[in-house]
Design goal:
Elements lengths: L3 H7 L1 H11 L5 E8 L5 E11 L2 E6 L4 H8 L2 E6 L8 E11 L3 H11 L8 E16 L7 E8 L2
Length: 153
């Protein structure tokens, strides 16, 4: 697993594309897949934030996704689709780490100016695999996907 910053050092262009697709506005938006206690997948929309080159999310403690990530940090994430960029998709997998340090939590909130409840739990998303897919020659017989893939080593 690597931090987003480490990934971006290894694959700067893929990281730039991913950040652009995740953060089409001030706040990042994506679908987060976690694993329920029984092993079944659970899918949630989430808001993301970047701070000091790292990818984070804040989750209320009563949320099922919070319990999933605390119990089993594995996740998969897909950037929200956009009507303007319908030919691009961005997907990543890895592990979420619960951040226990209140000073780091406060620093992330202060740096990013996000609204967060006092009880919301901060998770850093470490990256294991990334895939960017772009459809080329859309609507023609030559339509096909082109993939950019990175895996942590």
């Amino acid at each position: 697993m690597k931090s987003w910053n480490d990934f971006s050092i290894e694959e700067p262009e893929l990281a730039r594309i991913g950040k652009d697709l995740l953060f089409r506005s001030e706040v990042g938006l994506a679908f987060l897949a976690t694993l329920r206690k029984d092993g079944a997948p659970r899918l949630h929309p989430v808001s993301l934030t970047f701070s000091s080159g790292r990818l984070y999310l804040l989750i209320p403690p009563a949320s099922p996704k919070c319990a999933d990530l605390i119990r089993d940090g594995r996740y998969a994430m897909q950037a929200f689709p956009s009507q303007n960029e319908a030919n691009d998709e961005f997907y990543l997998t890895g592990r979420a780490a619960c951040i226990q340090d209140p000073a780091l939590r406060n620093a992330v909130i202060c740096e990013t100016h996000i609204r967060a409840g006092e009880d919301e739990i901060l998770f850093e998303l470490f990256v294991e695999r990334v895939m960017h897919t772009r459809l080329v020659n859309c609507g023609t017989p030559d339509e096909h996907p082109v993939h950019g893939i990175w895996r942590a080593t």
